[in-house]
Amino acid sequence: MPQTAQVGLTPRQVQDFIDDGFIKIENAFSTQLAKQCRDELWADIGLSPDQPEHWTQPVVRVGSKTSPPFIEAANAPPLHKAYDQLVGERRWLAPKGLGTFPIRFPSTETPGDDGWHVDMSLGIANPDFLEWRANVKSSGRALLMLFLFSDIGPDDAPTRIRKGSHATIARELLPYGDAGATLRQLSAGGYASTMDCEMTLATGAAGSVYLCHPFLVHAAQSHRGKQPRFMAQPALLPKSEFDPALPASPVQIAIRRACGLTF
What is the rounded distance in angstroms from the CA atom of residue 163 to the CA atom of residue 60? Predict the structure, then answer.
């Protein structure tokens, strides 16, 4: 259900985030701002929306963008309000940009990056990405976010989401403690433990944002539509480590409920 900037998230939406692992905010930023961002990305990759004959790769990646339109989108007022409601008031760092951008084009080729996964947040300086880690407290990551900069329908390579999978991952991370599990350990079974979760698609109009629990299992897919898909998938970073003196946030409540924890 969409929400408005003036009201913020409803109690139902906060509960949906705890239960399902994500919420969608429509009209988080304007379509005009989305177009500004798309125009910059087209320029960065040296391609044109008017020359589809040059769209020869299924996916082209852009790292991070720190120009004013992207900073404005990341810090739109309804998002700031939602960050407070899901992560805890003033417990997150205001984004100084957005990234990364897997720009997906209509193609019959397999993109090669469409496996189910959870994003890691620890040890990411290690050149072996399979050694990157996550722990049950989600140290280093407050949210996974999906920013839609183009209209994305079911055929436009929307991100696939396993609804409620964040609870399963929380339980799997629990035995690894603060040190956390590596991506190699967590993905050893191909995330089979979450295969029975209902799958949903991150579709929506440009300007929509999905705010996701850090443990949500998700995956890319091939583009079967006609227009390129522009999306950013940044993390929202926490301001500090977990503080047990503060009230539990919805992110933490979801973990506690899944694991029976008291931290």
Answer: 27
Q: Helices (H), strands (E): how many in the chain?
A: 7, 12
Q: Which CATH architecture has domain 11-238?
A: Sandwich (2.60)
What's the Cα-to-Cα distance from 187 to each of 101, 142, 253, rounded to whole Å? 23, 21, 24
Span 63-83, pLDDT tens digits: 999 999 999 999 999 999 999
Q: Over the range 199-217, which residues count as b (16 or more CB within 10 Å of their CB) and which as e? A: ebebbbebbbbbbbbbbbb
C-alpha 246/C-alpha 260 separation (Å) is 18
Locate the DSSP E strands across the chain: 22-25, 59-65, 98-104, 133-134, 143-148, 160-162, 181-182, 199-201, 209-212, 218-219, 231-232, 235-236
The 10 Å Cβ neighbour count of residue 78 is: 21
Domain spans, the chain: 11-238
Give the pLDDT band (50/70/90) at residue 241: confident
What confidence tens digit (pLDDT) does each residue in 115-159 have? 999 999 999 999 999 999 999 999 999 999 999 999 999 999 999
How confident is the model at residue 262, as a pLDDT? 62
- Which residue is associated with the tokens 């996701």? 212
